[in-house]
TrEMBL record:
CDD domains: GDH. The gene is ghrB. GO terms for molecular function: glyoxylate reductase (NADPH) activity. It is an enzyme of class 1 (oxidoreductase). It comes from Yersinia aldovae. It comes from the Bacteria. Catalyzes the NADPH-dependent reduction of glyoxylate and hydroxypyruvate into glycolate and glycerate, respectively. The keyword Flavoprotein does not apply. This is Glyoxylate/hydroxypyruvate reductase B.
Amino acid sequence: MKPSIVLYKSIPTDLHQRLEQHFTVNSFDGLTPDNQSELLTALQQTEGLIGSGGKIDHDFLQLTPRLRAVSTISVGYDNVDVDALNQRGVLLMHTPTALTETVADTLMALVLSCARRVVELAERVKAGEWQDSIGDDWYGVDVHHKTIGILGMGRIGLALAQRAHFGFNMPVLYTSRQPHEEAEQRFGARHCSLDTLLEEVDFLCITLPLTKQTYHMIGRDQLAKMKSSAILINTGRGPVVDEQALIAALQDGTIHAAGLDVFEQEPLAVGSPLLKLRNVVAVPHIGSATRETRYNMAASAVNNLIAALTGTVTENCVNPQVLKQV
Ligand code: 8YV
């Protein structure tokens, strides 16, 4: 008999069929669907879980006595209690390579949108305000040759450094636990302290995951160290930045602008003060949201689950120590 799995996000038909070749697939729309009792029954039997989001912690694991692998269609896994999975010997698989270039494109899009005021000025054109040749109240600021700061030099940070260095002639500063040899050799990136990064850069780009260590890493004190002309971009996770402190800094001119793909609460509330600010570009967590990349992420997650449940894992495993136990 094929192992039973729960799929809790819609994926392309060919990938669904690939799952069905290996497993009995029970599909749901999220982990809190309308048909909750059917989900609970499926979870009792399930050996694998594939989808994205949803809280997977101790309490959730009580519902899944036969679970052997979780395959998230994302690189981030802050919604998952990895210690709880480890205790239960459940593998956690993710998609760390499928979205790198696309998220780096999103970062650059936010850098350009904020600096050149693309969204705000396009809205003014739509509102009929473009009546004459534009004056300096429509001007933006340059991106090329400005200093970019990358908070977290992982895969995405590296892809951003490449764009900034080769595409825009930008000096690159970065913080990370260890100096990153490739970033330094290929893109002339300079490793520095967080304070130096805050004080020197024109664009602060946050690509960090959410952990206990990164929660509110950028708060009022850190924002106060930035140049008043600086622009903050966040595509990592919302809670890495203290959103209330950011709102205050954007309102009182502590920093110039922000481009935000992620927020402390998602979806962002329509009443958020962020949406009232002219100097904010807010997009709905689109970091990886292109057709190609979302397909590739789902394909990677499908392959990851098959590997995890057939004992053939070679990559993309967050907790490989569990492999030794199973
Ligand atoms: C996904 C992300 O958009 O991979 C991640 O960690 O934040 C995004 O690429 C999101 O998790 C929904 O699949």
